[in-house]
Amino acid sequence: MVPMTIGRRLTMWYGSIWTLSLVLLSVAVYATFARNQRAEIDRALDEELAEIAIEVVNAADTATRDAQLRKYFGQHPYYAVQVARPDGEILFASESLRQSSLPVPDFREGAAEQSVENVAFDDGREFRAASRLVQTFDGPVVIQAGDSLEPYYAALSRLMSVLLWLLPASVAAALAAGYWLSRRALAPVDQMTAAAIRISANRLAERVDVACPDDELGRLATAFNGMLDRLQRSFQEMQQFSADAAHELRTPLAVLRSEADVALQTARSPEEYQSILENQLDEIQRMTRLVDQLLFLCREDAGVTAPGAPIAVGPFIAELVEDLQPLAHDRNLSLRCEPLPACRVLIDSDRLRRLFCNLLDNAIKYTPPGGRVTVSGACRVDEVEIAVSDTGIGVSAEQAPHLFQRFYRAASSRGSTYGSGLGVAICDAVAKRHGGRITIAGNPDAGTNVVVTLPTAAPPSASAM
Description:
Layout: H1 6-58, H2 62-73, E1 79-84, E2 90-93, E3 114-120, E4 126-136, E5 139-148, H3 150-185, H4 187-198, H5 216-265, H6 270-302, E6 309-312, H7 313-323, H8 325-330, E7 334-337, E8 344-347, H9 349-365, E9 372-379, E10 383-390, H10 423-433, E11 437-443, E12 447-455
């Protein structure tokens, strides 16, 4: 079976619509032609009756009437003429009737005094007959004129033959033209199909040519190219992410292997083995944290989100700040929480804790002793803003946009603290997953200000904590 492609379907639809249109047009033409021809015959018969009526009505006696009828209508070349009494008695009949007679209508009192009908004779002839009741010197008579329908049927037959010949020829031409037009209209689709077949993970830079960007196929090609741009960026990010993850994991693995090799070369005391195991445990914990962060990001990218519940963000963050006070005290920092709004956000509590723990941990980590970290907030119409500000090393305007990249660490932070460069990326993923956003503003001389914006789950409360 030949596959029903879009081009063939368009051709079949075009051909079907064209065929139906031609059939309806042919029926309309045929019916209109037949009606007009019949109307023309009736008009001519009416004129003929008027001429017959003049001779019959003006005759003063029977002999004069008969003589006039034989003279003008006895051998009429076009029409059959008959004059009869209302009771059916034939007074005159032209030679074209050939021993046949036209039926005499029954013009009763109150009925119409003229009628038109088709009459079929026994010899196969068919006439269109018009009759009229007129008053004469010897009472009412019915005058009749008939016209043969043979030319009428012959004309209809010729028209039918022409229509029956033109219909299939027109349909065949329409199918051929429709197929040609569909192939030409769908040529860009074939080009996009060929380009899609050629494109692979190693050839994502190839794009589809857009000849007419404003038409439907042009917009489709533009959207297809846009999708390829996003795929290319995603592949590049995945490749960079894989390379960065491999690099981050390679360092602790190399340390573990090196320490194990050194420990196995010579016999050591229990204290030395304990020291080596403690170092290896630190590296294992580092790898565990890194793997946990990578797994969390993968789940966020895949949309695996635990069902959230409305959480009062103010008390939640205040409690979190209280839990981190010992860490700030160890680094000789001031960690302060200003009064926060009591509005609620719809989010999983573990993700909300991870979001602000990462931000507060970064603020504490990159703020030198004697500095301060401040948490503040405000409630808008349908969202809440929580700001984490510090007086730490800060970031430059050029570095700020890159902080959301995975494994990115600002140059000012490298070597000063320990970290994988995934904390801000995790915060950004959590905020976006719940319809929020994070903005970072920093100055190398004045610290960093991070603002987290989340949609509220209920109208904000007027009270503050």
